[in-house]
């Protein structure tokens, strides 16, 4: 995955400017930055949810233009969005399979759902997150923030083949569930599935990823090797006390 | 597919399953019926419920609007509304009937096109509904016009077309086959068939899943790859077709079509859906609920007639019940708690 001069303007708001983002095969990278730095904005451009104002995206060796979210999913990119993108009134399996339901008879839009199989797979997926959900057939609406987050994560983990993007996946999770999600991320790493992790938890970032992109005010400040930096340096970059030039080994945008 | 194993203890199925919301509607129906039963013995000295004739008239009265309500329920589940169904009933009645007249009637709308097989007026009528649904759906899904406004426009337009078609004159003298469409208890039969069909579709098909998904979070549905626009178009077309079918049944029953037919049916249909537990904010509801809502409606109307209560009061009470159902729906939204 690589972008060239990717920009997104909302009317007059320049949410993201001239981002040259890149990651190698099998690499796990993090995006860090203050609130409103443009982290979720780049996610929306990379996943076809929005169309960038300017710039190009390369994926898996060639340039891509995702006209919609389905294009990105078909290319093998799965995303846990910050707002989770769940349908409140549907149950857990329905949410996990939303938009690509398993069917038993193909009757076009009136194809019969294979609920049994979807529930089985959903259950397997949820086990990996370790979350306790009282009853899978209850609607998402009455679930806690953490339970909902785990549903979104297991959805992404179940389908991702080429890249998985997680926008603050552990923001609402307790200690045990966070550890479990980190475990999932490590297993993805072991399987060679690349990941973009967005997180405010720097400890987590250092634990999990190879390289870190620092966003500030809609721009990429720099990217640096997780091994060659530390928490305080990262904080200084995020808050703008230090600049890319001040940090040896940092690769400016 | 990522393979992972969690070694902790999780008990996925230990919790309580939330009970189906239709149960409350059923209790409501039973409660209201019992009240009328008691009032019947007190004031009329006879049973309200144990009267086969009264019950069959009651169901017959509501089943035509019930057919409309099946479509309206689906529209409301997507988070929309359809105010045009009553007018579509009127327009369809006129158009379909004009292709269903007998040759022995000398002043037919199309004297050359009389004694046609049932299929012809049926196709004409359903086309009216599909067309109305296409226009509604396109305005709402693609032009992003609020459903209330778009279908209000269709409500006025379709009524206008119904009046313009024969310059306000009624159309009568249908063929036997067309008259058979709404004969006797057939409207109840149509309602049951269509209700079962769409309840199954909503519950067990991709169509249903996407209908609920759009109503509960259209943006999530879009991000998940559902073609929200195309789906909405389909839902409004189905609602239009059902209203059109109801229109033909009404015309067939009355052996005549008038431009004013179906006036206010849209509100009764919406009321049945809402009383049946379909949420105006979308995402929730079912045809089973609407069928129960329809029966509540029927019980109240025939109960009032049974107690010889003035028609004015009936309308007022009906209005209050609708408002009460909406208030209850809003209240239910507000008090919903997030439980750990
Ligand atoms: N649809 C939109 N219309 C207008 N402005 C927007 C829109 N979406 C985002 N923005 C603006 O773009 C900027 C970047 O937002 P973004 O959501 O990418 O931040 P973020 O880095 O993800 O922050 P957080 O850590 O709080 O999630 C913000 O200033 C925000 O106000
Ligand atoms: Mg964000």
Distance between the termini of chain A: 15 Å
Kindly, what is the distance between the CA atoms of the first and last residues of chain B, rounded to a whole number of angstroms?
29 Å
Topology as H/E string of chain B? HHHHHEHHHHHEHHH
Overall outline of chain A = globular
In words, what does this structure look like?
The complex is a heterodimer of chains A (253) and B (340). Chain A has 253 residues and is α/β, with parallel strands linked by helices. Helices cover 32% and strands 25% of the residues of chain A. Chain A has one domain: Rossmann fold (3-Layer(aba) Sandwich). Chain A has helices at 39-46, 69-74, 92-96, 115-129, 145-159, 175-190, 202-208, 231-239, and strands at residues 2-10, 13-19, 28-33, 54-59, 62-64, 77-80, 103-105, 112-113, 163-167, 195-198, 211-216, 219-225, 251-252. With 340 residues, chain B is an all-alpha fold. Chain B has one domain (50-328). Chain B has a two-stranded antiparallel sheet with strand order 1-2. The longest helix of chain B is centred in the C-terminal third of the chain and has 27 residues, at 228-254. The interface between A and B is large, with 58 and 45 residues. The site of magnesium ion has 4 residues of chain A, from α1. Adenosine-5'-triphosphate (ATP) is lined by residues 10, 13, 15, 33, 35-41, 82 of chain A.
Q: Concise description?
A:
With 253 residues, chain A is an alpha/beta fold. Chain A is built from 8 helices and 13 strands.
């Amino acid at each position: 995955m690589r972008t060239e001069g990717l920009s997104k303007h909302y009317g007059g708001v320049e949410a993201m400017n001239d981002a040259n983002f890149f990651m190698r095969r099998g690499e796990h990278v993090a995006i860090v930055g203050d609130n409103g730095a443009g982290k979720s904005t780049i996610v929306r451009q990379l996943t076809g949810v929005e169309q960038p104002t300017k710039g190009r995206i390369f994926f898996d060796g060639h340039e891509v233009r995702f006209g919609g979210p389905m294009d990105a999913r078909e290319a093998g990119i799965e995303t846990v969005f910050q707002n989770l993108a769940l349908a409140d009134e549907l149950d857990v399996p329905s949410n996990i399979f939303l938009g690509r339901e398993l069917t038993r008879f193909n009757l076009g839009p009136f194809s019969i759902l294979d609920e049994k199989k979807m529930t089985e797979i959903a259950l397997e997926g949820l086990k990996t997150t370790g979350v306790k959900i009282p009853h899978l057939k209850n609607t998402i609406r009455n679930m806690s923030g953490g339970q909902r987050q785990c549903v979104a994560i297991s959805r992404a983990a179940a389908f991702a083949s080429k890249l998985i993007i997680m926008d603050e996946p552990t923001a609402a999770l307790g200690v045990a569930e966070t550890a479990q999600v980190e475990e999932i991320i490590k297993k993805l790493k072991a399987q060679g599935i690349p990941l973009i992790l967005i997180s405010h938890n720097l400890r987590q970032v250092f634990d999990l990823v190879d390289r870190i992109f620092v966003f500030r005010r809609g721009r990429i400040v720099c990217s640096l090797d997780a091994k060659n930096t530390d928490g305080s340096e990262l904080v200084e970059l995020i808050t703008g006390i230090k600049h890319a030039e001040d940090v040896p080994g940092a690769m400016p945008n | 597919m990522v393979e992972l194993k969690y070694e902790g203890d999780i008990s996925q199925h230990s919790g309580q399953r939330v009970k189906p919301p239709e149960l409350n509607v059923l209790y409501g129906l039973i409660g209201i019926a019992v009240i009328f039963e008691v009032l019947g013995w007190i004031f009329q000295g006879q049973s309200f419920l144990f009267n086969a004739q009264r019950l069959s008239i009651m169901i017959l009265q509501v089943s035509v609007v019930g057919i409309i309500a099946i479509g309206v329920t689906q529209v409301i589940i997507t988070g929309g509304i359809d105010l045009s169904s009553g007018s579509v009933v009127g327009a369809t009645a006129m158009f379909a009937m004009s292709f269903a007249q007998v040759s022995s009637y000398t002043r037919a709308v199309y004297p050359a096109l009389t004694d046609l097989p049932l299929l012809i007026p049926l196709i004409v009528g359903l086309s009216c509904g599909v067309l109305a649904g296409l226009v509604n759906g396109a305005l709402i899904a693609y032009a992003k016009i609020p459903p209330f406004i778009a279908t209000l426009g269709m409500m006025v337009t379709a009524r206008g077309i119904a009046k313009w078609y024969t310059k306000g004159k009624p159309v009568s003298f249908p063929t036997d086959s067309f008259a058979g469409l709404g004969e006797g208890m057939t409207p109840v039969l149509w309602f049951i068939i269509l209700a079962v069909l769409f309840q199954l579709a909503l519950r067990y098909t991709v169509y249903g899943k996407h209908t609920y998904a759009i109503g509960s979070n259209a943006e999530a549905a879009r991000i998940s790859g559902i073609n929200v626009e195309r789906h909405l178009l389909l839902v409004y077309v189905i609602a239009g077709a059902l209203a059109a079918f109801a229109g033909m049944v009404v015309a067939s029953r009355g052996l005549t079509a008038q431009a004013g037919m179906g006036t206010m049916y849209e509100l009764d249909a919406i009321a049945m859906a809402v009383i049946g537990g379909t949420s105006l904010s979308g995402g929730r509801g079912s045809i089973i609920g609407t069928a129960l809502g329809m029966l509540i409606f029927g019980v109240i109307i025939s109960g009032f007639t049974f107690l010889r209560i003035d028609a004015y009061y009936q309308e007022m009470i009906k209005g209050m019940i609708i408002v009460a159902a909406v208030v209850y729906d809003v209240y239910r939204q507000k008090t919903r708690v997030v439980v750990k």
